Amino acid sequence: MRAHVLKKYGKSNAVHAFDERPETPLAPGEVRVDVEAAALNPVDLKTREGEPKMLLPFAPPFVLGSDLVGTVVATGSNVTTLRVGDAVYAYAGMDRMGAFAEHVVLPADRVARRPGALSVEEAACLPLAGLCALAALDAGKVDKGSRVLVHGGVGGVGGIAVQLASQRGAEVFATVGTSDLERARSLGASHAIDYRTQRFEDAARDLDFVFDTVGGDTLKRSWSVVKHGGVVASLHVPPRADALIAAGLRAPWILRLLLPLVTRGAHAAAAKAGARLVPILSVPSAAGLERITRAAESSGLRVTVDEVFPFEALGAAFDHLQSGKAKGRVLLKR
After folding, report:
1. Looking at residue 14, which CATH number applies to its domain?
2. Does residue 101 fall inside a structural domain?
3. Selection from 145, 142, 185 nearest residue 164 by Cα
4. Whether the predicted pLDDT of 325 surpasses 90
5. Tell me, what's the pLDDT at 102?
6. In whole angstroms, what is the distance from residue 146 CA to residue 20 CA?
7. Do 181 and 233 belong to one domain?
8. What's the domain range around 18?
9. At a CB cut-off of 8 Å and minimum separation 6, what does 24 contact?
10. pLDDT at 40 over 90
11. Which CATH number do you get for residue 147?
12. pLDDT one-digit tens code per residue, 135-179
């Protein structure tokens, strides 16, 4: 098969090549998926540059890519949930990756039938962002009547979180740029806050849950708006070492030493606010994807696709993603 193989870590497109790669053998609990489309994520750029290499259970050469849509072409002997010919989608996981290839082999419990209500391109954008948003809202026990703030409310993850929270009956506040106020409202935000002209502290108070997809000063300021006993979930606070290991990643001794130091300030701020801090780490899950499928087919989920590149044009797709000009998701499609 043809695959985009990362030969070594680096910032240039020269570090990966579209080459022939042997097919991966199929274990009893796995399925082989013929990849039709694969979405790029910011973490793919970081992985190409080697930022998370301390965590990965493998080293170059390997195939990047985690979000995919395709068709099951083979199943292992123990697989009962999927059949050859099923149209599926998956988040491969940081411990496997491999979506930027003609075929990928994954555990069946990471693969689910894709939402028929969405296009191939839209479905390819959902797995990582959807599982991330789902994990955050579950951590915050967001339900009918919950008062929720989503930072980055029209972003890849934030936009899904706004929609899912709204579907649950929450009162949703969302911070967005000036040009995205109407879009945030259309996704389900009851209160769209222009972070360029208004401090969210002046618009949102006594919140049950805050989802931080931005980090930095935004996270620090969020403690003043969450109520005592509330939850702040963040994509920008590293998880505990045991959570990394449970997700199939590595946690070498130096990381175990540094993590408590790096996260001490955020956890101290949470304690001072009388709130709970939950670092979010997306974990592959067919069960989670099935929940996202139900949400998409019952109430609808909207995804913005910015540009679709030919499958062989990963370098151009990376350049576009890195430029910061994309107003939605960037994909490869065969």
Report:
1. 3.90.180.10
2. yes
3. 142
4. no
5. 98
6. 51
7. yes
8. 2-126+303-333
9. 32, 98, 103, 104, 105
10. yes
11. 3.40.50.720
12. 999 999 999 999 999 999 999 999 999 999 999 999 999 999 999
51 and 99 housed in the same domain = yes
Q: Is the pLDDT of residue 59 over 90?
A: yes
Per the structure, the count of domains in the chain is 2
47-50: long-range pairs with CB below 8 Å, 24+: 47/6, 47/94, 47/97, 48/6, 48/9, 48/10, 48/11, 48/15, 48/16, 48/318, 49/9, 49/10, 49/11, 50/9, 50/10
How many other CB atoms are there within 10 angstroms of residue 267's CB atom?
14
16 & 80 share domain: yes
Residues 111 and 216 in one domain: no
Mark out the alpha helices in the chain (DSSP H runs). 42-48, 120-124, 127-139, 158-167, 181-187, 217-222, 241-246, 253-273, 286-298, 314-323
Alpha-carbon span 140 to 116, nearest angstrom: 29
- CA torsion sign for 184, 185, 187, 193 is positive
Average pLDDT over residues 208-236: 97
Q: Is residue 298 part of a domain?
A: no
CB atoms near residue 77 (< 10 Å): 9
Distance CA 313, CA 17 (A): 10
Average pLDDT for 20-44: 96
In a domain, 287, yes or no: no
Round to whole Å and give the CA distance between 83 and 85: 6
Name which of 192, 143, 190, 195 is nearest 164 in CA terms: 143
Per-residue pLDDT tens over the stretch 230-287: 999 999 999 999 999 999 999 999 999 999 999 999 999 999 999 999 999 999 999 9
Tell me: do 164 and 251 sit in the same domain: yes
Paired with 174 in beta bridges are: 150, 192
Q: Are residues 137 and 258 in the same domain?
A: yes
Q: Are residues 171 and 222 in the same domain?
A: yes
Residue 121 resides in a domain: yes
